[in-house]
Amino acid sequence: MLINRIIKEEKLGKFKEDFGFLIDIINQSNGELDLSIRDNYFNLYYNGHNLSKIDFASNSSYRISIHRKYYEGSKANESVLFQEKEPIGKNEYYTIKLTSSELPSFFSSLNLKNLQSKIREVNHSEELSFEQSIISQYNNRKVEFIIDRQVTSQGLKGGRIDLLALKQKENSIYEFEVFEVKIGNNPDLKGAVAQQLKDYQEYILRNFKDFKFCYEKHYEQKKYLGLFSIPDYDRIKIEQPVSGRVIIGGYNEIAKKYIDNLEEQGIIVQTFNY
User: What is the per-residue burial (b if ≥16 Cβ within 10 Å, else e) of 49-80?
Assistant: First the structure.
């Protein structure tokens, strides 16, 4: 499989039981928090920034990894759990091992707010925040919604699809749509983004069987976890073709010449005031 953003079935039920409280917090966050399925682990995002990696450990416990620049000096770093647990490894991520009973204290609303405050302080990215706002606007929509973000795959050679959407063809049958997200003053809009978008579309088409299998299961698992209520289908089917668009936020006067050029190349462009 060239792409595998799926959790092993035997682990999914336990995760739902242990992290139900966090899923509730995410669903009540007005789109600021987002939980993404990866290759047998999860990423918890805040306004587009990777707040925490949640991985499965032995004995029904979990490894929680947070970048040091997000927890050092934050009030979350003063919590009892941070003080009592020894960090695993000495790289740029602080990793601790938690049992299921310790998770609610660690991922309390207060701790999350403290970590979010630190992220805003040290690593605000306008483009990532705009990306998160797009996810929020497409949340709980039946006709078209975001299924994944920051999509990587072996054959993309370091490339990363900003957002991968599913667009309804009829009933529970959907097709892929690639979203490339740029702030209006991003110089990539001069031309690089057009080729980038085409390359991503062609890559998915060449490896359609793998992407279809991955994201039909990915959808099913997100639906089971309760990460969205709409669409109301428990399962979907994904068919060709693969479409794409460039989404541009803000800086309207700067972006106008780029938009005209992209549209002349047949690229669909969607703009948002941001």
Answer: bbbbbbbbeeeebbbbbbbebbbeebebbebe
232-244 pLDDT tens trace: 999 999 999 999 9
Does some domain include residue 42? yes
Number of domains in the chain: 2
Separation between Cα atoms, residue 124 and residue 235, nearest integer Å: 36
pLDDT tens for each residue of 124-169: 788 888 999 999 999 889 999 999 999 998 888 778 999 999 999 9
Cα–Cα distance for residue pair 163/135, rounded to 1 Å: 8
H/E/C letters for each residue in 235-253? CCEEEEEEEEEEEEECCHH
4 falls within a domain: no
- Residue 111 lies in domain: 9-124
